[in-house]
Design goal:
The chain is an alpha+beta fold. It contains two helices and six strands; from the N terminus they run ββαβββαβ. One of its GO terms (molecular function) is transition metal ion binding.
Amino acid sequence: MKENRTLLDAEPGKTYRISQVDTNDEEMERFLLRLGCYPGEPVTVVTKKRKSCVAVIKNSRYSMDNNLARAIVL
């Protein structure tokens, strides 16, 4: 059984495809969908830090805390 990888597991500089947004928080899910986090969309992590990461989604850069990044399943 393959374990789900999230944006936190992504290697900086590499492009991945979003497979799903996995959260029980409806507000967070709506926020991520507004950013363009839909299944099949490409996402690239630019940098990762201890408590956040910067990702490119739909040609825009977003700084995300670990809670947001954990909800994006690759």
